[in-house]
Amino acid sequence: MIPAVLRLVVLPLRAPLLLLLLAISIYEGMHWSSSPAQLSIAWVLECLQALLVVLICTMPELLLQRVSGLMAASRVTSLVITLLIVTVGGLYLLHLKMLANVLILASAVLLARLDLARIRVAPPPLVLSVALTGVVLGGAVLGRWLVR
Predict the structure, then answer these.
(1) What's the pTM?
(2) CA distance readout (Å), 114 to 13, 16, 78, 79, 117
(3) Using CA atoms, how far apart are residues 38 and 53, in angstroms rounded to an integer?
């Protein structure tokens, strides 16, 4: 029990890109929706966006397998999914500041995953997704708290 806890405690030292992910999420949280409201809709949307980025970056093969299965089901489903992806992608390209934040966060998540793979820590995708989501959202909340 104690060696497992000790391994978990020293994990950021063995995989320093986890600390980079935390630092980036703190920085992003400081700049997300700097409105004085306690819980604004913009803050919730930015947290959902971060959650989506972490899910896509930690479970790409599972998500692509499910999407390709849906697209193979029928032509109508394929067209609807393609239209949705192109529309959402176009909206992100219209707001380049938002796209830059997404790319920075996605790069940090992928680098943290790569660092975990380097030290041969490979939890199941769902566990890794929950852990990295906790790091990202925890850092964003800490960054928002630091701004106040």
Answers:
(1) 0.80
(2) 15, 11, 32, 34, 5
(3) 24
CA 120 from centroid of its chain's CA atoms: 21
* Burial zone of 132 (CB within 10 Å; 0-12 exposed, 13-18 middle, 19+ buried): buried
The CA distance from 21 to 23, in Å, is 5
Contact partners, residue 61, CB within 8 Å, separation at least 6: none
User: What is the CB neighbour count within 10 angstroms for residue 54?
Assistant: 27
Q: Structure tokens of 105? A: 């966060």
Domain spans of the chain, in order of start? 46-142
Q: Tens of pLDDT along 49-95? A: 899 999 988 888 888 788 788 778 877 778 787 788 888 877 776 77
Average of per-residue pLDDT values in the chain: 84
